[in-house]
């Protein structure tokens, strides 16, 4: 059977590294750990799983570190993870099934990335990432921050999910990214469209809304950004405006996203929410219905499953009932129950319909 190397870059990950490696150690043939300057027990923990531990001097460049880790692999295929990622048991089983049937013609395997889960273990936010690549293709990482892996050839879109488990160090990592971008700006380095997007995200997360908006707008006006970054930029521009109390700006940027693709479900729901607040229930229902056009379909780019499942049905329950369509309201509620029966608002509506039937 073909061999696979797991390649990771780490720094001060004693809190999460064992959990990650426990979840994959029996799935891979080799574990490569590249440490970029840990001062805690990270390397000691890594040594319990592998002898292939290397030091890499941190030069404010994630791609450089990842490419170095790939250079140490000897397997026919390379898989990459971060230290706060895990494969849950069901995904470990799915990995084994995939790997046992994988042919040599496959160049890339993508997996879902679940960045957060609800109390029932369902993903709140997900997207695809290319997790396994054929080593002989020499695919490279690009970008100092929020790096991306070039890829091509025969790509398999698997149903396997990698689950992100946030640690207490998340804020520190965000500060590090912010400092890197600030150093780029201070040195006069030209930011790529991707850099503009992610620097603006850092600024937004740090509450620097006006500066964030300027970089989002620069990205959009350049007309050189990836379509998914452009769509997210519209959403985050709207978020900045809302944080500043600018509801008209919020509304404008939600609609701006339609320039780049058909209306995505999250934008439909957010527009529906605005109309619901204005008690324009008929118009609001239209937008929630549009969100459900994606029900059961895989979205391109990033996805919030709530916006194609229980949430629009919950809101349609309200809208239909307010415009006198009780049968439609009950039908929408039953769909919301199917997806999320324990949500407080769904349970409230269950009680409402039970009383109505008495």
TrEMBL record:
<feature type="domain" description="Glycosyltransferase 2-like">
    <location>
        <begin position="5"/>
        <end position="141"/>
    </location>
</feature>
<dbReference type="InterPro" id="IPR029044">
    <property type="entry name" value="Nucleotide-diphossugar_trans"/>
</dbReference>
<dbReference type="InterPro" id="IPR019734">
    <property type="entry name" value="TPR_rpt"/>
</dbReference>
<dbReference type="InterPro" id="IPR001173">
    <property type="entry name" value="Glyco_trans_2-like"/>
</dbReference>
<keyword id="KW-0808">Transferase</keyword>
<dbReference type="Pfam" id="PF00535">
    <property type="entry name" value="Glycos_transf_2"/>
</dbReference>
<dbReference type="InterPro" id="IPR011990">
    <property type="entry name" value="TPR-like_helical_dom_sf"/>
</dbReference>
<protein>
    <submittedName>
        <fullName>Glycosyl transferase</fullName>
    </submittedName>
</protein>
<dbReference type="GO" id="GO:0016740">
    <property type="term" value="F:transferase activity"/>
</dbReference>
